[in-house]
């Protein structure tokens, strides 16, 4: 019997204090301008999103890439669900060479760091990708995607259990001097064990979590509504699940955790930060409001600034200084 | 591209259950070209925006045409004057008119009327002769508004104009052909006029080129983004067999 | 490495045809009046829900019970989330003796079957409960809850892996002649394996799924918003995840599957039926509309009746007769 | 108990940002007793219903009093005349008036005014003398409507009436005490008048006794359901230390 999901059933430890956020922060070897990043697959290669206040961007993770270009999954690729969406894009994209040639030089001129989201069907493919990107100007780090629900081989397969997750992490670690972040899948019986395995294998930070596998059927035809049949559920619907999993991971490891899942406003981001995350990524919300990240950051600034912060309530654990936000600012909730 | 809070300022019925909504959104109205669209945010409302072609742009007004088929369209038709929606646009690549063709035929099936008034308007401004062929199920579903030098109707039940689809009512020579409507109609049109420009619909998340959700398969084997490279395509370039019609999960049939 | 969640990454098999629904149906040894049941914990002991059209009820599963009475979890016990809710009731309730004394005699007079939702901290407790309920008039079956997220011991612990799930199932099976249904948790790396283990251990039907573990934090205090800290996420938000998991289970076993998760209207129920479920249970929707089940059933009747059904679209698999609903009737969507 | 679609028919302001909304819901208006509540469904709107005490019931009208503190209350205050909400009620056990007490004192803090007009009305109909003591932060927050033979005010800043909470303005002998307001005020009241009847708030899912989500801890060690055994309790029976104040996650402070 493997450990239960989320480890054991003992009550969770108390949640952490919100981070001090005075200026740029160092997270897992990457210097972020703000604690709010753009999530992979929801910000393209950084050139596509219009109207986004780029000064707010802590950093960006580009769309997931493989060694070779990929065509992606057959349409339909998107299905809206209650407070969420299923996607099965199938990691359509250019291969690593095109990224190095067409995007990295651009990224090198940008004021925020760009991480590349790595995908492979074998451990060796991940390692090879890491090697190719090592030392490429403009690439500030690697996010190892062992959690993509939308490919037939590789992807999420590596994220279910500690051993394969560690194998991928170690292989990438061995081939690059870049910071290595590993992006976890919720689809595991014990996310804490996977997290610890990745930490031991040399990860600099962990991202929790990727989308959840889901399915929707067209009751007129009786067939799945996505071309790939199943897809990844993202958006506000998954936030309570993601906060729980990110918290489990933050409790299990010492390296920083980046929280992901359903963030739409500063209050949502605060939940992940209080749960023990050092930074967050915003995904689906950017589809709804291209400047979602700008609004999340503006809201966090109001909350975490000395004027915004209330007299600190008693911190039950007494761990570190506590920035408990109290002023919930109307209007910074962008979607839901 | 603009992201505006736009108030509803007018509304009229143009067919059985089809309405035109006019929103005040000057910056979009001034920029938009025929075939482009806006992505509409409803709050309270569903998570994602809803894409709509711009039907007309007049002064400060952006007009959309729609019927209620699900939650988003239902909510849009419940709006009252003064209610605001988020309008992101103009988006996508519209029709490319070729004035040397001299004549343009607009072929629209059902709500495919949406991009046509602007197309007619632009074509006439370029000195082209405009023929509009519009088809629907029955006379009551035909759009009561049209623009151009000539109009022809088609109804499936023959209750007005030619019996059949709009395609069957197109007079030759058609000149440049621009079309919008159900996928089977557009696929048939592509066989007859591969050079026609067609505006297609796919489910979209972002509408701005980021999510890759709006994949349109081309005969060349690649996918393109309906929101960015489209929604207007050369009819012959699309792999129609692999382009699914968007499915609804609303309360409408 | 255990199997990946949802088994392997081969494309899912085609979804099934909708069931023939002409009258009462036999599902896992229980005769249901309609394919729509009330889910455990959302219909009390059957005496509480007002205004519900009881002729629509296919059957009911009572609130989960233990051998002994339990006080339940400290408040707050409910947190609303986007299109969902977290609950941590902690299985408050009377023990089995009170159920046998106070409710079973009532149930015996009702026109629909009542199943008792069994909970224990040890395998022996489940078995003992089963033995006590065996032969009690009014009890038509047992639903073994190996998936409750809101107790510190037992509960979900048994549902994560095939072996403990099978152990509980076999122990219950050995002590009762009643139909034994097992309610699965989504919190497992491989729900198909757990499902198969329960089937082999003698389950008559499987219920998929229980609520998903989640957490919400109060950003003013930095503390969890539920008294139990974590809770179970239910409601429309989880529907796409539940449809996927129920489908995985239906593909993995031969015994009937009862689909649960976020059902609010006939179209939602149809998704589960098309995914291979023989019946469904409605939970959270009843809180929003006490007659949710009545509306789901009315909608299904319209869809599955000969007049409501459209000319059947071609069934790609040709498995059995196909009732593909086409008329989506406005007004039967009750919540979302 | 009834589940009705009730149209908004009137609305008025009774304090700074506090409004009374009147819905047409005759069957509920005729049955409801002081201290009972309705569970309100908003569509479009959040998943769960929102519980509100009935403020007044007049003829066909059910009145609620509220301020916007989150999504649900925000949407309620945006409703326009004719808009419908779902009203489920009357729910819960209201105040039990004891006419032999001769005199009743209503103690309300902030929005704790909600059940008081009906309580005053019922008490006077039973021949009781009614004194209403109402407290708020500042004069502008005091409810402008009151009922009874005598009214006393308290404000935290002393801008009107006694400086302090409503508790400090209660005249002795108080007779029967009915109270509603913030938990700290009610807890303090429980120490002084353990026999008082208090109406409490908890987060609720169903409002009808099914979900067990509205647990109120009693000093006897058991939990009871605020929606069914409550929301009115004997003040001394509640374990105030273990009764959390409902938390908001809306956009309001
Ligand atoms: C470029 C473009 C232009 C369009 N122009 C018009 C127009 O001018 N008039 C008009 O009535 N409709 C137009 N549509 C279709 C319109 O977007 C859909 O009818 C609308 O999104 C349905 O939303 P709903 O909430 O009412 O339906 P639901 O079925 O509840 O929507 C569920 C999901 O499916 C998507 N969806 C459903 N149908 C379609 C569809 N046909 N196309 C794309 N997505 C769909 C929705 O956006 C949403 O994400 C256009 C679509 C595109 C892509
Ligand atoms: C029996 C009863 C009677 C009430 N009577 C009144 C009244 O007359 N006037 C009035 O203004 N308010 C009253 N309340 C409180 C009212 O229910 C909440 O203010 C309202 O639910 C907040 O909804 P929201 O969407 O605006 O806030 P949100 O914070 O967005 O709501 C989120 C969730 O928390 C719950 N919640 C938040 N605050 C409360 C609260 N104080 N009590 C219970 N649940 C809460 C909501 O119901 C919802 O489930 C009463 C509550 C109860 C239990
Ligand atoms: C359309 C889409 C594409 C995505 N593509 C990727 C990807 O290429 N690599 C990856 O690691 N995650 C990908 N994700 C997952 C997101 O980065 C994120 O983990 C997930 O959406 C949850 O966050 P959200 O709820 O804020 O969207 C994608 C998500 C969406 C919606
Ligand atoms: C308040 C509440 C209490 C529940 N109690 C139980 C329980 O006692 N036993 C059980 O097996 N499931 C329990 N459940 C889970 C439901 O039966 C159901 O599996 C879950 O809520 C998903 O369905 P839904 O989305 O339709 O609510 C409970 C759910 C809720 C919301
Ligand atoms: S809709 Fe997102 S890329 Fe086209
Ligand atoms: S609110 Fe559900 S039992 Fe009281």
Features:
heterotetramer, A: 336 residues, alpha/beta, 8-stranded parallel β-barrel, 4-stranded antiparallel β-sheet, 8 helices, 16 strands, globular, B: 253 residues, mainly beta, 7-stranded antiparallel β-sheet, 4 helices, 13% helix, binds flavin-adenine dinucleotide, binds flavin mononucleotide, binds FE2/S2 (inorganic) cluster
Total helical segments of chain B: 4
Order of helices and strands of chain A: EEEEEEHEHEHEHEEEEEHEHEHH
Class by alpha and beta content of chain B: mainly beta
> How large a portion of the residues of chain B is in β-strands, by DSSP E?
25-35%
Low-confidence stretches of chain B: none
Form type of chain B: globular
| Count of individual helical segments of chain A | 8
Distance between the termini of chain A: 39 Å
How much is the radius of gyration of chain B in Å?
Answer: 17 Å
Number of strands of chain B: 16
> For the report, how would you describe the main beta sheet of chain B?
7 strands, antiparallel
Cα distance spanning the termini of chain B: 34 Å
> How would you describe the oligomerization state of the chains in this entry?
heterotetramer
Helix amount of chain A, in percent? Answer: 25-40%
Largest sheet of chain A: 8 strands, parallel, barrel
Based on helices, strands and strand pairing, what is the structural class of chain A?
alpha/beta
The H-and-E topology of chain B, N to C, reads as EEHEEEEHEEHEEEEHEEEE
**How confident overall, as mean pLDDT of chain B?**
95
Biggest interface reads:
A-C, 77 and 77 residues
Low-confidence parts of chain A: 1-12, 309-336
């Amino acid at each position: 019997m493997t450990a239960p999901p989320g480890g054991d059933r003992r009550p969770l430890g108390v949640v952490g204090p919100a981070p001090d956020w005075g200026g740029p922060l160092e997270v897992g070897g990457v210097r972020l301008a703000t604690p709010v990043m753009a999530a992979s697959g929801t910000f393209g290669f950084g050139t596509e999103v219009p109207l986004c206040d780029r000064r707010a961007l802590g950093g960006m993770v580009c769309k997931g890439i493989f060694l070779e270009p990929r065509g992606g999954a057959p349409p339909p690729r998107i299905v809206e669900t209650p407070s969420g969406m299923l996607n099965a894009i199938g990691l359509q994209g250019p291969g690593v060479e095109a990224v190095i040639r067409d995007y990295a030089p651009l990224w090198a001129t940008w004021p925020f760091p760009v991480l590349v989201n790595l995908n492979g069907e074998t451990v060796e493919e991940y390692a090879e990708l890491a090697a190719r990107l090592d030392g490429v100007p403009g690439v500030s780090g690697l996010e190892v995607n062992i959690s993509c629900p939308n490919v037939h081989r590789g992807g999420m397969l590596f994220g279910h259990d500690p051993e394969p997750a560690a194998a991928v992490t170690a292989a990438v670690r061995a081939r690059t001097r870049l910071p290595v972040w590993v992006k976890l899948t919720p689809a595991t019986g014990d996310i804490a064990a996977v997290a610890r395995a990745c930490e031991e294998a040399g990860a600099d930070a962990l991202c929790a979590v990727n989308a959840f596998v889901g399915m929707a059927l067209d009751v007129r035809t009786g067939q799945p509504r996505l071309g790939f049949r199943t897809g990844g559920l993202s958006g506000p619907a998954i936030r309570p699940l993601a906060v729980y999993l990110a918290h489990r991971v933050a409790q299990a490891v010492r390296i920083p955790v980046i929280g992901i899942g359903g963030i739409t406003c500063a209050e949502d981001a605060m939940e992940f930060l209080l749960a023990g995350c050092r930074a967050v990524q915003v995904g689906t919300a950017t589809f709804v409001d291209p400047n979602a990240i700008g609004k999340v950051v503006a809201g966090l600034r109001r909350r975490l600034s000395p004027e915004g912060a209330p007299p600190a309530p008693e911190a039950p654990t007494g761990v570190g200084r506590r920035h408990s936000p109290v002023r919930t600012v109307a209007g910074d909730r962008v979607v839901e | 591209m603009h992201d505006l809070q736009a108030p509803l300022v007018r509304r009229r019925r143009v067919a059985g259950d089809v309405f035109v909504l006019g929103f005040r959104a000057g910056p979009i109205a001034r920029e938009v070209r025929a075939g482009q669209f806006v992505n509409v945010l409803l709050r309270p409302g569903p998570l994602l925006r809803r894409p709509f072609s711009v039907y007309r742009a007049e002064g400060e007004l952006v007009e959309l045409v729609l019927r209620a088929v699900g939650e988003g369209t239902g909510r849009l038709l419940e709006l009252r004057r003064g209610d605001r929606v988020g309008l992101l646009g103009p988006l996508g690549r519209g029709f490319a008119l070729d004035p040397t063709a001299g004549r343009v035929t607009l072929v629209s099936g059902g709500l495919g009327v949406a991009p046509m008034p602007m197309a007619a308007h632009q074509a006439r401004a370029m000195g082209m002769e405009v023929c509009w062929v519009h088809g629907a199920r029955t006379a009551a579903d035909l759009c009561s508004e049209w623009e151009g030098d000539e109009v022809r109707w088609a109804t499936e039940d023959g209750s007005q104009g030619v019996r059949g689809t709009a395609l069957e009512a197109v007079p030759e020579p058609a000149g440049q052909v621009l079309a919008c409507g159900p996928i089977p109609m557009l696929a048939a049109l592509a066989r007859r006029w591969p050079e026609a420009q067609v505006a297609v619909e796919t489910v979209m998340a972002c509408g701005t080129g980021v999510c890759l959700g709006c994949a349109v398969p081309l005969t060349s084997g690649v996918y393109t983004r309906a929101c960015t490279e489209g929604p207007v395509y050369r009819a012959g370039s699309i792999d129609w067999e692999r382009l699914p019609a968007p499915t609804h999960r609303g309360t409408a049939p």
